[in-house]
Amino acid sequence: MAKQPRIRCAVCGSALEIVGSRALCQNSGCSGGGVFTQCEFCGDYSFSLRLGYCVNPNCRLYEKKRTACPVCNSKKVVTYNGRPVCMNPSCASNLKRLDRCFFCGKKTFLKAPSAMFCVNPSCSHLLERVSECPHCRQLSFVESAECCENADCSFYKVKMALCDSCGQMSKIADKKHPQYGRCVNPDCEGSPVPADQSDEQAKTSSEGEACSDTVEIPLEILRSASVQEEVTQAGDTSEVGERQQDHSNTQTPVLRIEVVGDALAWLKDELRKRGLSSVIRIKVEFAETDKTTDERGKTR
User: Fold this and answer.
1) CA–CA separation, 36 and 22 (whole Å)
2) Residue 181 Rama label (left phi>0; alpha psi -120 to 50; beta)
3) Do residues 239 and 265 make contact, with C-beta atoms less than 8 angstroms apart?
């Protein structure tokens, strides 16, 4: 007759003998209590019945006290901010407040004032309180990190503080950010950009409107990737020449730079840190010259 498989105790390393739904530690002096059931989060026989939590250091709920839910009978009730919350997404107590988690994509996000976190064991933000980002309007603002972790948000991973005007975690707290002190909540009416930074505001529309902030791109990084440059012009050659003649002191040629290859990820990260759009506009300054320009914009 085949024997029940034995595994090791997560506390003392002794052999475990599986008996029904329980695992018995062969070490009578085991500090973990000696009797375990299968943890519903990590899958190991490491939930101590005596201690009331998982003793597996690799479990996402290691040493997190859990009790049985009176509704679904699973060992998934945790105390969160002083209130019992069942982490079983299938529990009848959670069905009306389930939403899709922004990070893992599963419908395991408990959207309730007492919760606001994901209960998916494989989610990178398990049990982390998440709120709506005041800028991108996604459930992606991780409160413990004090920043939005939506990679498509213009203020991705930019530290925020509480705005006194609108009461949202929407005031840029990173002193190195070009818009430090600004409230990024578009609905805030009482938190203007400080006067000394009024010229540093950046528009972040998807159309790539001009940004007053400048991003310096190391030349060696751009050279290492496949870079395409497209000069944005309007009208025919004569129209361009007339504009150059009439507005030679104010005309600012614009280059749209498309970065592909290895530099793309680096560039996108730098733009997000500064709250800029994906289109860079580069000011080109011309040296003074005595040459004249004819009516078709050609230099004589």
Assistant:
1) 6
2) left
3) no
Q: Which of 41, 66, 91 is the last residue of a domain?
A: 66
In what helix (H) or strand (E) does residue 226 lie, and over which residues does it extend? Answer: strand 226-231
The domain boundary, picked from 45, 66, 87, lies at 66
Report how far residue 283's alpha carbon sits from residue 103's, in angstroms, rounded to the nearest whole number: 38
In a domain, 187, yes or no: no
Q: Are 105 and 98 in contact, with CB atoms under 8 Å apart?
A: no
- The whole domain housing 42 covers 1-66
Residue 177 tokens, joined: 């950010």
- 223-237, 269-283, 285-299 — which is least confidently predicted? 223-237
Closest alpha carbon to 257 in 241, 239, 271: 271
In a domain, 284, yes or no: yes
Query: Which region, left, alpha or beta, applies to residue 73 given φ > 0 means left and ψ of -120 to 50 means alpha?
Result: left
Considering the entire predicted model, what is its pTM?
0.57
Encode pLDDT of 134-167 as tens digits: 889 999 999 999 999 999 998 999 999 999 888 8
Q: Coil, strand, or helix at residue 208? A: coil
Residue 114 lies in a domain: no
Q: In angstroms, rounded to a whole number, what is the distance separating the alpha carbons of residues 140 and 128?
A: 11
Evaluate whether residue 12 is within a structural domain.
yes
For the chain, what is the domain count? Answer: 2
Taking alpha carbons only, the member of 168, 191, 200, 206 closest to residue 274 is: 200
**CA–CA distance, 19 with 36 (Å, rounded to integer):** 10
pLDDT of residue 276: 58
What type of residue is 275? G
